[in-house]
TrEMBL record, chain A:
Signal peptide: none annotated. Keywords: Nucleus. SMART domains: Skp1 (SM00512). InterPro entries: ELC1, SKP1-like, SKP1/BTB/POZ_sf, Skp1_comp_POZ. It is found in: Nucleus. The keyword Membrane does not apply. Belongs to the SKP1 family. This is Elongin-C. PANTHER family: ELONGIN-C (PTHR20648). Pfam families: Skp1_POZ. It comes from Saccharomyces eubayanus (Yeast). Residues 6-64 form the SKP1 component POZ domain.
UniProtKB/TrEMBL annotation, chain B:
SMART domains: LRR_CC. The gene is U6500J02430. It comes from the Eukaryota. Residues 47-62 have a biased composition (Basic and acidic residues). Residues 78-87 have a biased composition (Acidic residues). PANTHER family: GH16156P (PTHR13318:SF247), PARTNER OF PAIRED, ISOFORM B-RELATED (PTHR13318). InterPro entries: Leu-rich_rpt_Cys-con_subtyp (IPR006553), LRR_dom_sf (IPR032675). This is RAD7-like protein. The lineage of its organism: Eukaryota, Fungi, Dikarya, Ascomycota, Saccharomycotina. Residues 1-97 are annotated as: Disordered. Gene3D superfamilies: Ribonuclease Inhibitor (3.80.10.10). Coiled coil: none annotated.
Amino acid sequence: MSQDPVILVSNDNKEYEIPRSAAMVSPTLKAIIEGSFKESKGRIELKEFGSHILEKVVEYLNYNYKYSGVEGDDDEDIPEFEIPTEMSLELLLAADYLNI
Amino acid sequence: MYRSRNRPKRGGEDEVKGPNSALTQFLREEGISAENIKQKWYQRQSKKGEDGKGGKSEKEQSTQDDDSTTQVSQKEVIEEEEVDDLELGSGSETGKAEIAYDARMNLVAADSDEEEYETNSASATPVNLSPAKNQESLIKKRQNTAKIIQNRRKKRKRAANLLDRRVNKVSSLQSLCIGKISKNISKWQKETGDSSKLVFNRLRDVLGGVSTANLNNLAKALSKNRALNDHTLQLFLKTDLTKLTFNDCSKVSFDGYKTLAIFSPHLTKLSLQMCGQLNNESLLYIAEKLPNLKALYLDGPFLINEDTWENFFAIMKDRLEEFHISNTHRFTDKSLSNLLINCGSTLASLGLSRLDSVSNYALLPQYLMNDKFHTLSIEYPLNEEYVNDEIVINILGQVGSTLRNLVLNGCVELTDSMIINGLTAFIPEKCQLEVLSLEELDQITTDSLVYFFSKVELNKLKECSFRRCLQLGDMAVIELLLNGAKDSLTSLSFNSLKELTKDAFVTLTCPDLTYIDLGFVRCVDDSIIQLLGEQNPKLSVIDVFGDNLVTENAKTRPGLTLIGRQSDSI
């Protein structure tokens, strides 16, 4: 399996690049990447989400990937993931869809 | 959610969120707080000082007072900051402004005192440090306090996480969002005032696309924050939800229940916990307007009287498949017989808990005729004699062959006879039991359970609790683990089994076990904790409250959390 980064595309055609392993945090994206369609080449269009939402999603995927591997008692060092209040509803939709 | 004890009163009663006790609320309403008491003490002290040390030079006194006031104000600032941070709804601008205002007030007070004393005392003020030096020490002090605050916050956060059983360090984005929404929902409501409908329309538009699972998660989060009321209830209307659970309905009025019944006609299963405001009218409304309703779980419906129960069961005749009720004294023997006569043949799941007006449990075996009956839960009868061996044996004779969940918590009259002549006799050898909970049955002994486990194969048992069955010893546990149950168990409770020794845990190897409660099992020590972690790959939480041999040296593998360890206290 290639280790190339994955590109997520929002509905206003903005592209966000994230490491393949971080994208794998989401079961939905994992299924898409591992599937046999053209998305498996690494460009996934998520036309349901605006760029501001997708940006936050990418931020979370990186955040989750970075910190969920941390073991031991140092869990206090994990910073909180900030969500702007006005974004919370739409972000919930995205999180729901991506199952993260 | 962790809340500081001495949180000052801000706003009205709407501010009461989270698990606050009535006492806390009372103290807050009366304006009694630790801060107040402290202030009074300082006042008294300074008064005493003035009286007692009359001869003391003005200068000395001024320094003393300066110190104490700055100390006080600094402490206050620290506390305020902490409170601010801990407040989950800290987004509230007004709250922040108020806190900042308070802090400023305190500082100003201190400053003005300083000036006053300085003008009073002669020019030789003791605070003679050069401004640069002064600033440096101030910065240092600030840094120190910041560090202390951070440490304290970390400790509290860890403790709160432990108590919330939050094992995953990184919570999912969904739960983060739901948390955020539930925190702000009442704020949005307040801000918009009368036009709140607009907000909810918007919410509903957006949430329309959220899966039903997340809607239920949102209901859970709202209940936890005590934010579920008639307004927030609107989120759940006009949806295709078929199952809905509200864990805290204490603020939902009878009108709320009625609108719920009108606008969510697809509901098949409804669970309303703490539904104290559910009245006769709304219960009948629910029965009439929800044609598909098959399962109803109610906790605390104490406004519903005998007649309404009678009507309700008449409406639900041949329709009700699951009925669980707890915490009401108005559900009487007559109501129980109404339930059984009307719905006995369709009931597949029945739960009766803490019903103080029910004594005639002997009715049950006559009416439970459904050959698909799977769940029986009888808990905490008013008088222990009401639920005796004979009754339970009769019930098991009737439904034992199909039973999947059996809960008999707090029926303390039950003895070994129930285990031998009931469970062993009527539950088929290859049984379907998934949940077995026999909490607080202090008369059952090791021998009867050993007999039961050796006769019946519990291949599907997932949850098992023998909490406070005080007579149970090692052999009962060992025999349970020799049984087929070993491979299916996911949750176990041996809380307070004081007779257990280390031998009981040597054979405890369950591939699917995720949770075990070993609270007040005195023999449990560091070595057993290590052993359990090694032998049970999926084990993620062990409760060890009251196990004083479990120390901070206990070795746990990554992914396993101990809760209730003495050394973890703050």
